[in-house]
């Protein structure tokens, strides 16, 4: 039987000694000019050109960090901007990450009624459908719980079948996250407590003996008190923690995201790694690659330095 | 200045005397065999083949109903199953619907932090970006409020700029909709009351003199008491009402969705129209088109018959 997502992920974390997730969020106007020019030369200033530049950029990033991070997280929105060519670049990026030994989280935040959730699950998890390309699958997907339990179950069931994982939005990293998520209920709990209960209950559908569940949660670095609170409530969940770096949070805020065994959290950075070259948009590929690699190394050191000794022993 | 989405929509509703939204939710195994065979002949049993069958099917549906409905609603999930070719079929469907005088709602239920929400808004609303194909835009998009107000604002601002609209998920049509949406807060209100307040506040960002706002709401036909309650709370919102037909609700449940002027609700049906041919999967195109058209006519009659006389006078 194929190893679960959680098991594959924890092995990669131990191997690479890294809790980092590298976001892949390409924005055409911010890309290195040398890659943009190559794309224009090949496809002109078209959606195909933008998509080609994305793929070149993502390959450069993956080559620079594949030994420094277990997993990449391309965000669908940036690819959807360019329609079908953008989506083609998305799946070629996923394929390339897999070929370089990295796992992939599709950051898509999908959520819908059950028949539609089935279709989304098929789009992201299924490997062997007739008609569908066999390269079009990811290891994990972010999902939105607003529509309730029957909208989540099709994702979990499909993930269980395909040894994939999910990260359910619990407390997001943005300033307005609490508008709905922190609403206090008449029973004294918060809305997020209800989502946390969903996660516990969905974990019971898994057949696994591994310490960690493949039903994870998104908990933003911006809210350390929530990290600490839900760490206790959801001991078997791996937390996907956005908001590190550009969004203003560093490792001092993150100590509560991890369990005593040194696992349990993936710290995600996108812009601070992707655009580590800053204003040096005209630098050559080697220079840009070096700056991206250096940013990823710095991030790993920052996170690992702040893990306590007992946590480090787990490696 | 371009007419607002709400204004364009109300004109089409009056012209076609129809409050119907036709969902376009293609599932390859349920499509008419004559179209599937054409697609296999052209592209084989591949993602390109499935996508081509989707486009043929959608054109057949649009041709059958374009004078009977103001707007179509293709659901992204069904197209994402087939990767880039699926998305190509999505945008060719949108282009064809526009060419036949129909408006389009992209049912995507997107929602993310502000920088990512900007990218989604660009993907769905923007018409004149460099690099992006000029045919890739919709009139309206469904969005998910779970991440709070700062995740909604980029969509509304972009919609205002591009004379487009949004439908914010308020109370969805699925059985578990109330798991989070109906949670009772410590102030006696429900979670959906908070979302309703977002909608009112976002409507204030619009510059329009039209009776209706382009910031709409999704309220499922399954919950008539919510339709009645939010109809009063959100008088200027157009409600996108899923759950008619296959999901088990007919017009008797829908009287409260409309305002006294006969406007204010779009009743959405997907499977009951798309698959009106039932088990006659091997029928010829003319027969299938006739059955789809008949289902749309029946739906219009059912809805219009149950609108009160004073409402009908508005036409």
UniProtKB/TrEMBL annotation, chains A, B:
GO molecular function: orotidine-5'-phosphate decarboxylase activity
Gene symbol of the encoding locus: pyrF
Sequence ranges assigned to domain Orotidine 5'-phosphate decarboxylase in this UniProt record: 19-286
EC number: 4.1.1.23
Originating species: Paenibacillus athensensis
Pfam families registered for this protein in UniProt: OMPdecase
Recorded catalytic activity of this chain's protein: orotidine 5'-phosphate + H(+) = UMP + CO2
BP-aspect Gene Ontology terms: 'de novo' pyrimidine nucleobase biosynthetic process; 'de novo' UMP biosynthetic process
Top enzyme class: lyase
Record's protein name: Orotidine 5'-phosphate decarboxylase
Annotated keywords: Decarboxylase, Lyase, Pyrimidine biosynthesis
Active site as annotated: 109 (proton donor)
């Amino acid at each position: 039987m194929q190893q679960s997502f959680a098991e594959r992920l924890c092995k990669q974390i131990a191997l690479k000694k890294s809790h980092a997730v590298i976001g892949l969020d390409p924005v055409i106007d911010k890309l290195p000019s040398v890659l943009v020019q190559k794309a224009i030369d090949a496809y002109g200033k078209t959606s195909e050109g933008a998509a080609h530049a994305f793929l070149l950029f993502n390959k450069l990033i993956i080559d620079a960090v594949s030994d420094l991070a277990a997993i990449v997280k391309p965000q669908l929105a940036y690819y959807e901007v360019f329609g079908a060519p953008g989506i083609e670049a998305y799946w070629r990026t996923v394929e390339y990450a897999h070929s370089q030994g990295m796992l992939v989280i599709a950051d898509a935040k999908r959520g819908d009624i059950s028949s539609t959730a089935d279709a989304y699950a098929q789009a992201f998890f299924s490997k062997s459908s007739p008609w569908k390309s066999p390269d079009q699958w990811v290891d994990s997907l972010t999902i939105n719980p607003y529509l309730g339990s029957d909208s989540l179950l099709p994702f979990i069931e499909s993930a269980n079948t395909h040894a994939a994982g999910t990260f359910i939005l619990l407390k997001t990293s943005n300033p307005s996250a609490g508008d709905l998520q922190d609403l206090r209920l008449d029973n004294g709990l918060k809305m997020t407590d209800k989502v946390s209960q969903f996660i516990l209950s969905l974990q019971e559908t898994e057949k696994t003996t591994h310490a960690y569940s493949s039903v994870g949660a998104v908990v933003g670095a911006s809210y350390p008190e929530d990290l600490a609170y839900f760490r206790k409530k959801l001991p078997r969940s791996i937390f996907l923690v956005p908001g590190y770096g550009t969004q203003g949070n560093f490792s001092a805020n993150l100590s509560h995201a991890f369990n005593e065994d040194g696992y349990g959290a993936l710290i995600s950075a996108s812009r601070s790694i992707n655009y580590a070259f800053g204003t040096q948009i005209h630098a050559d590929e080697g220079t840009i690659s070096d700056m991206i690699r250096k940013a990823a190394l710095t991030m790993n050191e920052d996170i690992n330095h702040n893990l306590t000794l007992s946590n480090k022993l787990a490696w």
